[in-house]
Design a protein that fits this description.
By secondary structure, the chain is an alpha/beta fold. The chain is built from eight helices and six strands. Helices cover 38% and strands 16% of the residues. The longest helix has 14 residues.
């Protein structure tokens, strides 16, 4: 059976840490394909302003160019309502006929039990997590622990929130994001301080 990775997130903006984790997952898990799944309206970030999905998808296209294993799914980006991972994975399980692997950061795993229908998610996909420190496995409930694969990608402590902060201050983010993404951010005036 084909192995399909699903990498959900806001990607606001996509950065080299996302790309390194994705490539590590493809290599380690022998994924046939990895779909980046930018969300339109994230359930856990409702209070934060999110850059419009068309910009986030355009930046992903630029960042993923040249990697035939990487693709983009607009399933959640094009929704007007909050998208829930369980519903998205059910759709992908029906349409893709593949073994699903859902990538997430440790911060997402820490709040995973607050997501809508976490047990359904676990029945549809293995969770692939990039840990940020030690001790996470011990705090997981047994049902979740059995369905988690921890990756050990090179530790790149880059966060999209820090990129946005740096850009608002006028600091450089060169090499934090691919050059084509940085050019797009500048061309469209994204992440500048409101005047």
């Amino acid at each position: 059976m084909r192995r399909l990775g699903i990498y959900g997130g806001t990607f606001d903006p996509v950065h080299v840490g996302h790309l390194i984790m994705a490539q590590e997952a493809v290599a380690r898990l022998r994924l046939d394909r990895l779909l980046f799944l930018p969300t339109g309206r994230p359930a856990h970030k409702r209070s934060r302003h999110i850059t419009p999905a068309n910009h986030r998808v355009a930046m992903l296209r630029l960042a993923l160019r040249g990697n035939p294993r990487f693709g983009i799914s607009r399933l959640e980006a094009d929704r007007d309502a909050v998208a829930f991972t369980a519903v998205t994975l059910e759709h992908l399980a029906r349409t893709e006929k593949a073994e699903l692997y859902f990538l997430m950061g440790q911060d997402s795993l820490e709040e995973f039990r607050t997501w809508r229908d976490p047990d359904r998610i676990l029945s549809l996909a293995r969770l692939v997590v990039a840990p940020r420190g030690d001790g996470m496995l011990g705090s997981l409930d047994p049902a979740t622990r059995r369905r988690v694969i921890f990756l050990k990608p090179p530790r790149i402590d880059i966060a999209a929130s820090e990129i946005r902060r740096r850009l608002r201050r006028g600091s450089t983010v060169r090499y934090w994001v691919p050059d084509a993404v940085l050019a797009y951010i500048r061309r469209h005036g994204l992440y500048r301080s409101p005047r």
